[in-house]
Amino acid sequence: MIKILKYTYVLIIGVFLLSTNKAYTQELNCIVSVNTQQIQSSDKKIYETLQASIYEFMNSKKWTNYTYETEEKIECTIMLTISSKEADQFKGTLQVQSRRPIYKSAYNSVLLNMIDKDIQFNYIEYQPLDYNEGTFTSNLTSLLAYYANLIIGYDFDSYQLLGGNPYFEKAQSIITSAQSTADPGWKGYESSSQKNRYWLIENLLNNVYSPVREAVYNYHRKGLDMLIDNAVTGKAAITASFDKLKTVHENKPGSYLMQLFFIAKTDEILNIFTNNTISTTDKTKVVDICKKIDPTNSNKYNQINK
């Protein structure tokens, strides 16, 4: 009896250690939701199963070779909105958002906030979401792996100059393996406006757009992260980062990568530069640049100088 109890105790401890170790390895803390308001369906259970499967896929798979502690996990959100379902085929949109903490503060800065309107995949309830890197297994797992690597790449870019390259390259590999599928969003010629999964990675790995990624690094690591310890230096770095954006805009106006930057950052820019501790010269400079690159939000930027 004693031996049995001892074995049970050791087994419980072993399971606990494994689960504890798991909590310190995975990179993502991803909130997943599946929205079905656009469709009529009597079978809601399949969507609950789909949501649980996506959650497990994003949060349980190891995406890097690094060890992440619980508090280091990347906070992100995926909302899948289903617009139609025919047999096992689902269509809809996917909103992806990621955030990163700012040093010595309780504030989280949005890094990525985008909507993919080319979502189409087949799914059978309870089917395992198998994924092998470098191989196209299914459109659903390729989509999720693509966005997992995109989220991680954006996060690395904000801490280290061009630090996201390995993960953007993995996303590019997923695009390459998906070229044979009929599902949309993977091919360059599918988007005349150059705004889909293919073009986003093309921009991120194209040297022409490197100043945008340098701006992301300067804005976050040298700027926001420095505000508590040295507000003057931090604000100067944030202001200087807009010169990088201006350079790219002059060469490649209207790029997808630049648009995503401002979708994520417009409200934050307003909060930073409406602060009275920032000089009028810097405010005017940033407003002029933002209005040229992001004219749809000109009225918002005008508030900075009021």
Describe the structure.
This protein has 306 residues and is α+β, with helices and mostly antiparallel strands. The chain has two domains: 1-205, no CATH class; 210-306, no CATH class. The protein has ten helices and four strands; from the N terminus they run αβαβββαααααααα. The protein has helices at 2-23, 45-60, 139-159, 165-177, 197-205, 210-223, 231-251, 256-273, 280-293, 298-302; strands spanning 28-35, 74-86, 89-101, 108-122. Strands 1-2-3-4 form a four-stranded mixed β-sheet. A hairpin with a 2-residue loop joins strand 2 and strand 3 (89-101). Residues 1-24 have low confidence and may be disordered.
Order of H and E elements: HEHEEEHHHHHHHH
What is the tally of helical segments? Answer: 10
Strand order in the sheet with the most strands: 1-2-3-4
Assign an overall shape: globular
**Nearest-angstrom radius of gyration?**
22 Å
Secondary-structure class: alpha+beta
Estimate the strand proportion.
Answer: 15-25%
DSSP strand tally: 4
Measure the end-to-end span. Answer: 79 Å
**Uncertain residue segments:** 1-24
Helical fraction: 40-55%
Largest sheet features: 4 strands, mixed
Number of domains: 2
> Average pLDDT across residues?
91
Supply the key terms.
2 domains; 306 residues; globular; 16% strand; alpha+beta; disordered N terminus; 10 helices
